[in-house]
Design a protein that fits this description.
Layout (H helix, E strand, L loop, with lengths): L11 H13 L2 H4 L1 E3 L6 E3 L1 H14 L3 H14 L4 H14 L2 H14 L6 H14 L3 H14 L4 H13 L3 H14 L5 H4 L7 H12 L6
Antiparallel strand pairs: 1-2
Helix pairs in contact: 1-3, 3-4, 3-5, 4-5, 5-6, 5-7, 6-7, 7-8, 7-9, 8-9, 9-10
Length: about 210
């Protein structure tokens, strides 16, 4: 099945810069933190997950990003963000069913999270990955009730509507997306994770709806 990944919450050009900046930091810096009052150094599951997520979007070292995310979930199986970022990796580079499982686990671990819209967006993308477009649309709409202008969710909704055959709804969502991000182009959408087939498929949907290449 074809997977889609909406990406991080920043506009594409800014996101690419942030991702590269995070990935360039040494693992000792972002993967470790000092334990208060004891002077010891312990690993942080969240820091490992963030670095793995950044490298995942770059697409330059897929195995390393997966290793970091696996290390994060093993270190703290209750870290919801680690599972959420693991879901993204599976959407882009791994198994779509694993993406759904990881995203559902993340939402289960943090059901009242103030960023629930973000969790629902990731789960929506996971359902896109397995071809369950109607359920993906359902989670996108739920997410948008909490954050109406979240670009990745709008894109995920667009992809779900298009693939489900709701072309008129997809065109309306496409116009709303352009209102929010008038400078969006296919090349900007592909600014990160362009090697991923899932990202490339999303680009083809945008192109089919009339988005310019540059």
């Amino acid at each position: 099945q074809t997977a889609f990944v909406a990406g991080l919450s920043q506009p594409d050009a800014v996101r690419a810069t942030l991702v590269r900046g995070t990935a360039k930091k040494g693992r000792v810096i972002v993967g470790l933190r000092a334990t208060p009052n004891k002077g010891k150094v312990t690993q942080s599951s969240l820091a490992l997950a963030v670095q793995g997520h950044a490298i995942c979007h770059l697409g330059s070292n897929v195995d390393e990003s997966h290793a970091l995310l696996t290390q994060a979930t093993n270190l703290n199986p209750n870290d919801a963000m680690a599972w959420l970022y693991t879901s993204v990796w599976s959407q882009m580079w791994g198994d779509a069913e694993d993406a759904v499982s990881a995203a559902r686990n993340a939402l289960h671990l943090s059901p009242l999270d103030p960023q629930r819209y973000y969790f629902e967006m990731m789960l929506a993308n996971s359902y896109l990955a397995i071809g369950d477009f109607e359920r993906s649309i359902e989670y996108c709409k739920s997410s948008l009730t909490r954050n109406r202008f979240h670009l990745p969710t709008v894109r995920a909704l667009l992809f779900g509507q298009y693939e489900a055959g709701h072309i008129e709804e997809a065109r309306k969502t496409f116009q709303f997306l352009l209102q929010l991000q008038p400078d969006l182009t296919v090349s900007r959408y592909l600014a990160s994770g362009s090697q991923s087939k899932t990202r490339q498929h999303g680009a083809r949907v945008l192109s089919a709806l009339g988005l310019p290449e540059h």
